[in-house]
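Field log, afternoon session.

UNIT: design team B
ACTIVITY: writing a sequence onto a fixed backbone
BACKBONE:
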């Protein structure tokens, strides 16, 4: 070892981490300055080297040259290694190489000016943070590399060799705009296999034919993936994910509750001794004069006038410039009140004091400022402006805008129906029976939902055929359409109910894909996205498997 200059005490502790890489070479000097750590070394002349072409050892030296290598920083300083290596003749006469440059294990790699340790750091940062983020972290570590270099090093990392999984997960994800991609996941190891742009059946069939051996394929209810799996792996058991089955049924229930919006007020408890009719009438008149009500009434009249002539929903949507689903919602409604948006009144900190306000108003107190001061003595912490707005209806001869319960929205009613009975609170248990007793269609939907939930809980698909028949005979258009879709996929639906396989691992990996897309601001191409999604999963697994060393 030569002479160390500069901040010797600062680097002497961390210098030990550099020495193992230089164990096979002769170190002449290590110069430590404020800017850089410069190491000069050379390989031993007496040690034979292995030919990079045929692997035979040789000691016949041709010449020497100096390689300049960059290593990870030492005490925050860049490390440059000037290593003198030999070029040797290959003594194997049948080898196509005449001369070759010797390599030092753990220190040099062919055609590379970074040590393996620094190269792994650059690749791992590229996988985790992509180009720009990786370059910024490397700059903090005093390693100067551009984002393009980080990305190019990332793309040079070979993907793990594809292993045909026994249980395959298939799912789609939004790539950009209206373009979707397909992700394949090994459901056993929970690692992504590959992804590509598009979600056509032929591409999936081609991949399955090139990788035979898939026994179980988990997917959603997509007809495209169903055909692709059947064409590429006809012997594989297809499993329709139970979460997507339940989600599809819940959406149909919400369509039914939207169509029976007029029945939802029946869920409210009966009126008490006080007659709320004037307040309801006033609220109805006020709602009818709002901008949302006028807009809903205008659209309702236009859609109803066009649909009565026998025109399709798509034709009406094109003429009015609306979405087809919006036209369907207005066409199914009986009155415009069923489709108007009524946001529920938000609770206010003034609600407990409304009775006192009414009492003081009846006693003749008309000053909002004095009323606000009196409420402050009773513990009210709100602003004066809220009190002023609260007494404004009283000045016009109208009652106070007292808090009153509004009927559930179609989404809330659908959630009440699909929720497990043991997970419903007292509020739902009090109102749901009233709603079901009032509306036979919602009662029928509730019974069908509970029967399907029992099949999922018991993992028993014996009653699936009878349930599909009752679904088709229900007379409810959303459920009839669902029955037709599930009949064609009933074998996969039965597997989804009875087997433990599901698409949960697919959904988790889709979330990871979305995260990687956002890290790259949506500008990544499919090859880069595939590289990062596959490599980052293996990188996490690699570091998670490492034992944790507790500090002494």
């Amino acid at each position: 070892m030569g002479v160390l200059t500069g901040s010797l005490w600062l680097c002497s502790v961390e210098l030990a981490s550099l020495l193992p890489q230089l164990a096979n070479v002769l170190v002449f000097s290590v110069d430590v300055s404020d800017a850089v750590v410069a190491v000069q070394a050379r390989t031993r002349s007496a040690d034979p080297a292995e030919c990079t072409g045929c692997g035979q050892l040789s000691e016949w030296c041709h010449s020497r040259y100096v390689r300049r290598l960059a290593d990870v920083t030492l005490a925050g300083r860049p490390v440059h290694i000037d290593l003198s290596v030999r070029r040797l003749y290959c003594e194997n006469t049948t080898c196509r190489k005449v001369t070759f440059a010797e390599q030092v294990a753990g220190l040099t790699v062919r055609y590379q000016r970074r040590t393996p340790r620094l190269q792994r750091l650059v690749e791992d940062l590229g996988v985790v943070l992509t180009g720009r983020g990786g370059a910024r972290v490397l700059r903090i570590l005093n390693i100067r590399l551009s984002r393009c270099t980080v990305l190019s090093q990332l793309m040079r990392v070979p993907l793990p060799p594809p292993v045909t999984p026994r249980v395959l997960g298939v799912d789609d994800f939004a790539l950009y705009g209206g373009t979707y991609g397909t992700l394949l996941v090994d459901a056993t190891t929970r690692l992504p296999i590959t992804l590509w742009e598009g979600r056509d059946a032929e591409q999936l069939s081609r991949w399955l034919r090139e990788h035979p051996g898939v026994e179980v394929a988990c997917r959603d209810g997509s007809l495209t993936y169903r055909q692709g799996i059947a064409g590429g792996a006809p012997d594989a058991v297809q499993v329709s994910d139970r979460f997507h089955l339940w989600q599809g049924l819940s959406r149909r229930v919400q369509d039914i509750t939207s169509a029976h919006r007029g029945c939802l007020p029946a869920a409210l408890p009966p009126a008490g001794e006080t007659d709320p009719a004037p307040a309801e009438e006033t609220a109805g008149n006020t709602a009818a004069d709002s901008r949302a009500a006028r807009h809903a009434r205008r659209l309702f009249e236009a859609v109803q006038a066009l649909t009565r002539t026998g025109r399709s929903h798509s034709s009406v949507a094109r003429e009015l410039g609306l979405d087809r689903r919006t036209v369907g919602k207005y066409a199914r409604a009986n009155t415009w009140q069923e489709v108007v948006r009524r946001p529920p009144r938000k609770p206010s900190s003034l609600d407990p004091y409304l009775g006192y306000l009414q009492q003081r108003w009846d006693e003749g107190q008309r000053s909002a400022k004095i009323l606000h001061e009196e409420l402050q003595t009773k513990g009210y912490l709100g602003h004066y402006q809220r009190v002023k707005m609260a007494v404004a209806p009283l000045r016009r001869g109208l009652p106070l805008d007292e808090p009153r319960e509004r009927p559930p929205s179609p989404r809330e009613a659908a959630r009440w129906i699909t929720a497990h009975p043991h997970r419903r609170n007292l509020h739902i248990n009090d109102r749901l029976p009233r709603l079901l007793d009032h509306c036979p269609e919602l009662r029928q939907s509730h019974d069908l939902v509970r029967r399907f939930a029992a099949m999922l809980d018991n993992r028993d698909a014996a009653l699936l055929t009878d349930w599909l028949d009752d679904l088709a005979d229900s007379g409810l258009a959303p459920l009839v359409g669902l029955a037709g879709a599930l009949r064609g996929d009933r074998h996969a639906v039965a597997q989804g109910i009875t087997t433990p396989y599901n698409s949960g691992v697919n959904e988790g990996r889709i979330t990871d894909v979305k995260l990687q897309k956002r890290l790259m601001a949506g500008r990544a191409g499919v090859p880069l996205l595939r590289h990062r999604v596959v490599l980052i999963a293996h990188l996490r697994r690699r570091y998670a498997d490492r034992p944790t060393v507790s500090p002494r």
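LOG NOTE: The chain is about 45% helix and 15% strand.
NEXT ACTIVITY: expression trials, pending approval
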